[in-house]
Amino acid sequence: MDKIEYIVLEEQRGDRIDKVITGIDDEWSRTQVQQWIKEGNVLVNGKTVKTNYKCSTNDVINISIPDPEELDVVPEEMALDIYYEDRDVLVVNKPRGMVVHPAPGHMTGTLVNGLMAHCKDLSGINGVLRPGIVHRIDKDTSGLLMVAKNDLAHESLVNQLVEKTVTRKYKAIVHGVIPHDYGTIDAPLGRDSKDRQSMAVVDKGKHAVTHFQVLERFNDFTFIECQLETGRTHQIRVHMKYIGYPLAGDPKYGPKKTLSIDGQALHAGILGFQHPRTNEYLEFEAPLPADMVKLLAQLRK
After folding, report:
1. Annotated catalytic residue 140
2. Which residues, at least 6 apart from 62, have a Cβ–Cβ distance to it below 8 Å?
3. Which pTM was predicted?
4. Is 16 helix (H, G, I), strand (E, B) or coil?
């Protein structure tokens, strides 16, 4: 564990501790520094502080930089559908049925296992089980994900998600015929009080907004495109159920009698963001997976 001592300058008086430390070494990201502070690896005048501590002139900051954790996730060679890659970011099209990152009891066969075999450089902000993962899509949702290959890229992409500047559009097949062409669902999401494994619209939940547009109507189903303004767990699935049009094939939030598909008919088809280094706007589109194309063909008949 490396140890560094730094004395706060007059011009840094009143600055937040995380800002001051991030300025010491441009390889350190704000998120990484905040984690060190929370873990007690930063002392100011011999005492632990919070991330919003305001510095005083001549404060003595002692930083203990933790040794990188050994990853206990095993790299696995797999055929990844990569849409874009450079030294900072990678965009991959995840198939339905694949878990994004390992969890206790599910340590192999995940996207992270495959990414670790594909490239050795993934950001470490999210720890040993989720290297490089900036955002997730559910196991039974297919589509595009952005992956950070270093901590600076990770911080930039997370900030873009927080600022709602990332473009995320999904295609979905839902039960019922939606009469209007456009809609916005603005309803807070949180844990379901009756089932802690599920999400629900709850009064004190987190702010969540989904916009949708009808693409095609069938006898008992509607094909829609959803655009996320926020990215809450199961957001589209819960919001569409809330307004009475649950996703076809959804084992958790949909009806038991549904279309023949292995998981919810939901595909993250369009992903756009600003490149962390060049600030150029990049947008990618992945076509519908074969199972959803087949379903639409059957519905059109």
Report:
1. no
2. 3, 4, 5, 42, 43, 44, 46
3. 0.74
4. strand
